[in-house]
Amino acid sequence: MSIFWIYFMLFVSAFLECLCSSTTNNSDVKLLLVSFDGFRASYLELYAFPNLQKMITSGTLVKHVNNVFVTKTFPNHYSIVTGRFAESHGVVANTMYDTATNKSFSTFEDKDPFWWNEATPIWVTNQQQGHKSGGAMWPGTDVFIHNTTPSYYLNYNYSTPFSKRVDHIIEWFTNSTGPINFGTLYWEEPDSTGHRSGPDSKELKNKLKEVDNNIGYLIDQLQKTGLWNTVNIIITSDHGMAQCSDKKVIQLDNCIGRGNYTRVTNSPVAAILPLSDVNYVYKLLSNCDTHMKVYLKEDIPDRFHYKHNKRIQPILLVADEGWTIVQNGSITQLGDHGYDNALPSMHPLLVAYGPVFKRGYKINSINNIDIYPLMCRVLGLKEEPNNGTFGNVRCLLASESCVGLPDVIGIVIGSLMILITVLCLLILLKKRATPRRAFARLQLQDDDDDDPLID
Ligand SMILES: *[C@@H]1O[C@H](CO)[C@@H](O)[C@H](O)[C@H]1NC(C)=O
Ligand SMILES: *[C@@H]1O[C@H](CO)[C@@H](O)[C@H](O)[C@H]1NC(C)=O
Ligand SMILES: *[C@@H]1O[C@H](CO)[C@@H](O)[C@H](O)[C@H]1NC(C)=O
Ligand SMILES: [Zn+2]
Hints:
Elements: H1 2-21, E1 30-36, H2 43-46, H3 50-57, E2 60-66, H4 73-82, H5 86-89, E3 96-98, E4 103-105, H6 122-128, E5 133-136, E6 152-153, H7 162-174, E7 182-187, H8 191-197, H9 202-224, E8 231-236, E9 242-243, E10 249-251, E11 261-263, E12 269-274, H10 278-286, E13 292-296, E14 315-319, E15 324-326, E16 335-336, E17 350-353, E18 361-367, H11 371-379, H12 405-433, H13 437-448
Parallel strand pairs: 1-7, 1-8, 2-18, 5-6, 5-7, 10-15
Antiparallel strand pairs: 2-17, 3-4, 8-17, 9-16, 11-12, 12-14, 13-14
Helix pairs in contact: 1-12, 7-9
This protein binds 2-acetamido-2-deoxy-beta-D-glucopyranose (3 copies) and zinc ion.
One 2-acetamido-2-deoxy-beta-D-glucopyranose binds next to loops.
């Protein structure tokens, strides 16, 4: 009986705390969303990040972020800011072709709102709900999505140094006429070096030191301007990185003549637009290489959430981890991503720091589409329809009480101690009562009904 009551009361108190914590005034809350492209989750276990660790120690760490398929830059950056799978936000690849309009999209030709308008990114929603947003080169922030850019933004230029991007962010948060409450910041590393030299290389290791210094610069600037400890920061990434090898190459020319198809995307996930009969092309490709899965669009696994969009081409080739798809020849880079989003090597991490986030809190995983409802909650915004689940990320917030494993162990040990105490008392009582035997037995029998644990 005692255990039951302890659990019951714990649940009641947790429930009441949840109810109370959901009513807060968010109008002063500031949030900065940062992406270091291609920051693989396991880098944190392999290398030292003194500056990032400062934020982890007094913030929250999510060790693995389950990103969306395809594990490429544009689809995942748009999933983070819309909370939607690629099929539902429309940016289904870094390179796209729309048959109906004959339009093309690439990372260098990305300004046509057509490609972005199937969803609404959080910076637009933030502005529609009365605030100002800033965009420092996050993909899409220099595009007129639903006729709107961020209140302040930079045109994408990869040669703009990290420090300059940070300086703009700081200026926007402190602008005396119209400060932002939400900013996004993007940096191309460690992705570029990961591609060029591979995730296992010395070059990558050195680049990660530089990335940590970048984080150090951001912290310094926030401290200097008094924003540190008022701005909430989420540092995350779009995807991880896999090591490629010239021994892992799939050559399409060995299997199919080039006149049969157009490659809309290349590797490691190739979108194939057949020029001859779809089933004929599919048959040639599916017999090509055991290290590549070949799907007709309608057979793409449901777990990819990568089917229901006309920008997804009729045939999809998905290379196994570390394999490269080419027409002929060899690999051009030592690292790549885009592979199956269930692979740990494709996962980034997430670090959250600031007044709204728990301190010294670690969890194993969330989905990157859950970051959107988290940010909406932090900023007090009404969400657009999305595929994320706030319940998955609720515990990152300081205002939410969550029973973790240490708490559970505490409760179990505590309950056992109370139970043992009660048992000891009962035994003592029983011993004392032995002289008056008949009466004691009667009492015990009475008790039996409502206390099955002592049976
Ligand atoms: C929230 O707080 C701000 C200033 O602290 C105030 O101006 C605003 O009216 C408050 N909003 C609500 C909904 O209470
Ligand atoms: C299609 O591929 C097959 C097999 O390689 C080849 O024989 C044929 O000529 C190709 N057709 C075109 C139109 O390129
Ligand atoms: C994802 O969200 C969109 C927009 O609300 C919705 O249309 C779609 O059905 C959702 N997808 C899944 C798999 O629930
Ligand atoms: Zn990349």
